[in-house]
Design goal:
The protein has 422 residues and is mainly alpha-helical. The chain has 16 helices and no strands. 79% of the residues lie in helices and 0% in strands.
């Protein structure tokens, strides 16, 4: 292969910077809070509605990602799909400006969020599938880790602009007022512009390996047949299916950790809202550092070893967090958790990039998206039920370690593509 140029690789990483803004500002921090606090009839109802909407989006992603990936592999490339789905996310995110602080806009808001989330997630499937065509096998870990780390920082950068420019200021930028929460709503088109602007280098500079070149109708027919054969011949690919199962479980743990880490810090250690925000920012910064730093380990020892090391680190640091009653000790252990979060996620992408044959890249990354979403409800559900049964946040959070441990055990039974020569 002919490696892509350094500017082209930088443009590929910058797409992660662009895309992450949607998840950080809209899904996690600003718009989700605005919806539950101001749009829904009350915070409890809003939380339920938001949870249902994200569940619907997750289900659709799980069902459709492998199908779209299989079809894209048979068509004329993957980059165009990443661009089109990104534009879908950009359009729906910008349109969230029209969501007023009144319950009559709730269905409208949730519909936009579901479609925008589909666009952002599907774009990542095809973006990830481009990774193996950009650098030689021995450099995949560094590029994946760099992209993932830049993505963490991009989300935080956009969040910082949103807070400073619109949310936490007496004079929002560009003359935006505060009537009908206009300063909060303005963060949605800001995210849309951020996504659009920073994806442009990817659009114009990052090369795409050619697909198989079938016209649309034939690509759909052949892609679906190919996906069906992959599913029927599961026994012939034991490493793939064991990896997807392990990925499903430890991703459930990661998802639950991100969702409830701040809640645990507030409930058990008495963190204020400002401290929770600081905690979230610090966790993302250390995760970015870990993703970039462990990329070299990935290229040298393999993705499996990198994921395993990350999971062991999460288990050890997670146990310290659970048994500690000291706030300083919690901070130290939590920041170390961040260092291991990034490598687990980035190396998972590298494992699939090394394993997937050229003609199945998007299809298998679609299956990876399915494994990341199929049981996303399980971690939060188990944590909630254990917390309710024991009356202890510590016991509830301990369930996250179970997902990491079982994922680690399953991971031990697979071969690393780097070692297997696949």
């Amino acid at each position: 292969m002919t490696p892509a140029s350094k500017p082209a690789l930088a443009a590929w990483c910058l797409f992660d910077w662009a895309n992450s803004a949607y998840f950080t500002v809209i899904v996690t921090f600003v718009f989700a809070t605005y919806f539950t606090e101001a749009v829904a009839t009350d915070p409890t109802a809003g939380t339920v509605q938001w949870g249902h909407a994200t569940s619907i989006a997750g289900l659709l992603i799980a069902l459709l990602a492998p199908i779209l990936g299989a079809v894209a592999d048979q068509g004329r490339g993957r980059k165009l799909w990443a661009i089109l789905f990104s534009l879908l996310c950009v359009f729906c995110t910008a349109w969230l400006w029209n969501v007023r602080p009144m319950s009559s806009d709730a269905t409208f808001a949730l519909s936009l969020v579901v479609v925008a989330t589909l666009g952002a997630e599907f774009a990542l499937v095809f973006y990830n599938a481009m990774l193996p065509g950009l650098v030689p096998q021995e450099q995949l870990g560094r590029l994946s880790g760099l992209g993932w780390g830049i993505g963490y920082l991009g989300g935080l950068g956009c969040l910082a602009v949103a807070l400073v420019g619109f949310v936490q200021t007496d004079q929002p930028w560009f003359g935006v007022g505060k009537d009908e929460a206009a300063h909060i709503r303005a963060t949605a088109p800001m995210v849309a512009l951020w996504y659009l602007a920073f994806m442009l280098p990817f659009v114009f500079m990052t090369p795409d390996a050619p697909g198989l070149g079938h016209p649309p109708r034939a690509a759909i027919k052949i892609g679906l047949a190919h996906l069906g054969r992959t599913l029927r011949e599961a026994r012939q690919h034991p490493d793939l299916w064991r990896f997807l199962l392990a990925h499903m479980l430890y991703t459930d743990g990661l998802t639950t950790l991100f969702a409830f880490g701040g809640i645990y810090a507030a409930g058990t250690f008495g963190f204020s809202f400002a401290e929770v925000i600081q905690f979230g920012i610090a966790l993302n910064v250390t995760a970015a550092i870990g993703a970039v730093a462990f990329g070299w380990v990935d290229d040298r020892l393999g993705a499996k070893a990198t994921i395993a090391a990350g999971l062991v680190g999460l288990l050890v640091c997670g146990a310290i967090v659970l048994i500690s009653t000291s706030k300083p000790v919690f901070w130290i252990a939590a920041l170390l958790i961040g260092l291991f979060l990034g490598p687990v996620q980035a190396a998972s992408r590298t494992w699939m990039a090394r394993y997937a044959p050229d003609e199945q890249r998007a299809e298998l990354f679609g299956l990876m998206a399915l494994s990341g979403k199929a049981t996303a409800f399980l971690g939060p559900l188990l944590l909630a039920e254990i917390t309710r049964a024991t009356g202890s946040q510590r016991w509830g959070m301990a369930t996250i370690l179970v997902f990491f441990a079982v994922g680690l055990v399953l991971l031990a039974s697979i071969r690393d593509p780097k070692e297997a020569g696949t």
